[in-house]
Design a protein that fits this description.
It is a single chain. With about 280 residues, this protein is α+β, with helices and mostly antiparallel strands. The chain has three domains: about 40 residues, no CATH class; about 60 residues, no CATH class; about 110 residues, Arc Repressor Mutant, subunit A. Helices cover about 35% and strands about 20% of the residues. The protein contains four helices and twelve strands, in the order αββββββββαββαββα. Strands 4-5-6-7-8 form a five-stranded antiparallel beta sheet, with no helix packed on it. β4 and β5 form a beta hairpin. The protein is rod-shaped and about 145 Å long.
Length: about 280
């Protein structure tokens, strides 16, 4: 039994020795030190060109270098044959994917290979951003008519808007700490209420939480304002008609008053003549 254990230890150390020697022959470096908290020590791996491909420093930092001439995965975490997390390059684009689904791509060059300053970042799935912020540029939604079909006007927008209720509220910070909600009063809508009238504006996540697309509520408000303006114009038109009719009635009354005064004058003259006789 003792001989078997010694044999196992010998094989293990032999494997380690061969592993280290193979990297030394290839001109690659492996450095590893325990109980070290400085940046100068840690574990590093290099290729034959001397590029550091991976290094974990003694102070806890990790460095992964990509080679611009390479395509494919730069860094991958797999479960079996499935990609759990993958960062790489394909067709002039850097990409990030999670569980095999593309999360973001960054364009590096156009179709003829010309570098693209700043790149063209695309984020494909739903993204939840925590805390607040601001931006100084503009953020547009895709809206070209060439991208759309089955286009229909929003009907009864005003009545639908009247079904919505704006509220003031405060976030449940203590119950949902992961959302990192801000303190203080907020103004908005309740997703469940909006969903009853505008289900197109409400998204339900895998955890059941609902969110409202406030930006896409703007077209509804535009149509509601237009409908309301139409009602106001009709009321103004009716008011003008009523005003005209009132004016005509007043004129007719004045004519009647003049005619009545004339008849009263005639009656007075007749009465006077009768009294003289």
């Amino acid at each position: 039994m003792k001989g078997i254990i010694m044999k196992k230890h010998f094989c293990f150390f032999a494997f380690i020795s061969i592993f280290i020697l193979s990297y030394a022959v290839l001109g690659q470096d492996i450095q590893f030190r325990l109980n070290c908290s400085t940046q100068s020590c840690g574990l590093s791996m290099k290729n034959q060109a001397g590029d550091t491909l991976f290094k974990t420093f003694g102070n806890g930092q990790t460095y992964i270098k990509t080679i611009s001439s390479l395509t494919g995965s730069y860094f991958s975490v797999n479960r079996g044959n499935n990609y759990v997390f993958d960062v790489g390059n394909y067709s002039n684009r850097n990409y990030v994917s999670v569980n095999g689904a593309l999360v973001a791509t960054l364009l590096l060059a156009d179709s003829i290979g010309t570098p693209t300053p700043g790149g063209d970042l695309k984020i494909t799935p739903f993204v939840r951003l925590l805390n607040s912020g601001c931006y100084t540029g503009s953020w547009n939604q895709c809206s070209d008519i060439r991208l759309k079909k089955n286009i229909n006007k929003i009907e009864n927008a005003l009545n639908k808007v009247l079904n919505l209720q704006g509220v003031t509220y405060q976030w449940k910070k203590d119950e949902y700490p992961s959302y990192k909600f801000e303190e203080g009063n907020k103004i908005g809508l309740i997703a469940q209420d909006v969903e009853k009238t505008f289900p197109e504006l409400v998204r339900t996540e895998t955890d059941g939480m609902k969110s409202v697309n406030y930006a896409n509520l703007s077209p509804v408000l535009i149509e509601a304002i237009k409908e309301q303006q139409g009602i106001i114009k009709d009321l103004e038109s009716d008011a003008k008609k009523d005003e005209f009719e009132i004016t005509e009635l007043k004129k007719h009354i004045r004519d009647l008053e003049i005619e009545l005064a004339a008849q009263q004058k005639i009656l007075k003259e007749i009465k006077s003549n009768l009294e003289e006789k």
